[in-house]
Write a structure and sequence with these properties.
With 507 residues, the protein is an alpha/beta fold. The chain is 54% helix and 14% strand. The strands form 2 sheets. An 8-stranded mixed β-sheet has the order 3-2-1-4-7-6-10-5. It has a two-stranded antiparallel ribbon with strand order 8-9.
Length: 507
Amino acid sequence: MDYLTNHLEMVKEDLLNRRYTTAKERSLSLLKKFPFSPQAWVFLGESLYHLNFKHEAKKVFERAELLDPQGGWIDAIKKLDYSAKQSNFSEEIADLLKLPKVTVAAAILVKNEERCIERCITSILPAVDEVVVIDTGSTDNTMNIVKSFPSVKIVEFEWVNDFAAARNAGLKHINSDWVLWIDADEYLNSEDINSVREIAAIFSQSYEDYIPLLRIGQENIINGRRSINYDMARMFPMNRGLRYWGKIHEQIVLEDGRMYHGKFMKKDVKIRVFHDGYDPAIMKDKKKLERNVALLKEMVDEDKENPLWWLFYGRETLSLGKVDEAIPILQKAEELCNKQVPFGRELELLMNLIRAFMLKKQYDTAIAYCKKALDIDPNFPDALYYLAQIKIEQALQLYREAEQLFIKSKEGFNTFKKGVVSPNTEIRDYLADIGIADVARLVGHLSAANKIYKNVYQICPLKEQIKKQIDFIEGQRQNLNLDAMSTTATAISSEKESKVSLSYIYK
């Protein structure tokens, strides 16, 4: 157990045993060495809260949330009562929370973004010290909109089918200490305006031994639904010799081109942007997938040993519905991934392979990839979900096979050559029909099952067994009717409350 983990366990024990002063002192000591440990900040906040320094505790919890925006503890601390009389911050806590002054630039890469560029710039201006827009050849009203913001710096770049080249051109024009990249179809969450400079300042404290690459939260809006992910490093210091590499899905690398390096420290931070560029209508208009696949094909041709480019190439090809083309590409990524340990996106690669083989209905192969993912992390939700989906598909296939076998068992009486052994005529008379009805019931075809049960009931000696199934189906029908009546009654009640006439229903 390393130093930080060991001492966090000690603080946890202090808190569990209500040794709040000791917990506070240990947490303070840890944070002087590890200012980026969200758990140490949470423990400090908890000890301060129990010592009735609630105003200090609130500020400390806020610092922790900046460093751990998806922490499971966040909901709990938001429910705490901070209404106690405010006290002056102790010098020790004030010094711990104090941050150096740093400057941040927002960089935006654009081409024909008149739909959304004003929204993007307006959202980010209050949060940064400069905004740099790199235009790659807009032919619509984009640049006129950008020019309406006098403080925005414009960089003209001739497009060469290379996103990294465009971003690197923009980096040369930034004067701030840090850069935050934001896409034109994104806009900053207004709650995080103050977070941008604060987070840059936090990570500007003594980082000689590593280079911080900060992952911001992208909240995607697709068909009106929102989901957030923190899988992209978008913010980094300008004085550490970083640049971009890759024509599409470009990566941050050192000046010598190394992508994976022990000096990189990747952290999620509480800077969130809303993004609507993956909405199906917008994707169709911009034909992003077709563009991405073409660029990725060039990238794997130029850099054949990079598993990341093969993963992206296979993933985008699969998104285009080209399953047969995507599978060998993803398998090539898997082959290269096994040579490069660790490969941070292995689970993403496996999920794409699972989806591909599920679409091909090759369930045994898909299960093998699910198990490989679960070997990496037995609690990985995606692998568990897809494994369950596969089990359902396999079960349905077994039900279909069972139905066909029941049918054939009846038809066999017309072709079976009787000899010493005679077939069981009950199969022909009612047993096979009961089996067919059972399959229909299990897959949810209750009406068909009920009809067969009632037909068989007249000639079947297993009347008690059949009656149970008929009663079950009847009970389900009544429950559905009651649910429908309840829903209708609720709707009518709501309409009456709003004094809207329902007379049109009866016309």
